[in-house]
Amino acid sequence: MRVVLHISDLHFGTERLPVMHALQAWVRTEKPDLLIVSGDITQRARSAQFRAAAEYIGSLSVPARLVIPGNHDIPLFNVFARLLQPFGKFQGVFGTDLEPEFESNELLVLCVNSTRPERHKHGAVTVDQIERVAERLRAAAPRQLRMVVMHHPVLAITAGDQINLLRGHAAATRIW
């Protein structure tokens, strides 16, 4: 594994063509082996936004990809869909696995779905998620670079960003 491309917060529905074209050109030049898309793929979790995002992500021609949802990828205004099938549109386009993994001799990438339908903005991890990831990290081969990917941050640079931290970040990062 030589090159991993990690992108987040595409917010399809508000995308900018010059930025999209620049990323496509970079991918053609650098030829990443793995693409990780860590949430907020859409602006409002609309079907057309998911379709456009999937088409664009497919256009990047990266051999392997991991895609996880963010808080913008679950319905905001449709309360019934938010409660009954919060990830339905995401899964219809990107598949049912909300916590995909990638493993090679050199790399282990574990995705954690930190998006919670009951929260509009802030993400969280459960004790079960923390333990599952910790077990996988412990079982990794010594030569593997280990990455844990989620949409919500575990570290804040400024005091004003503290409110955005992942609920459970302290326990997760201590154990991981």
3D architecture notes:
This protein has 176 residues and is α/β, with parallel strands linked by helices. It contains six helices and six strands; from the N terminus they run βαβαβααββαβα. It has a three-stranded parallel beta sheet, with no helix packed on it. A hairpin with a 3-residue loop joins strand 4 and strand 5 (107-111). It is globular. The relative contact order is 0.15.
Please summarize what this structure is.
This protein has 176 residues and is an alpha/beta fold. The protein has 6 helices and 6 strands, in the order βαβαβααββαβα.
Helicity range of the residues?
Answer: 25-40%
Average pLDDT works out at 95
Task: Identify the strand order in the major beta sheet.
Answer: 1-2-3
Beginning-to-end CA distance, first to last residue: 22 Å
**Order of SSEs, N→C?**
EHEHEHHEEHEH
How many DSSP helices? Answer: 6
Largest sheet: 3 strands, parallel
Gross morphology:
globular
Strand content: 15-25%
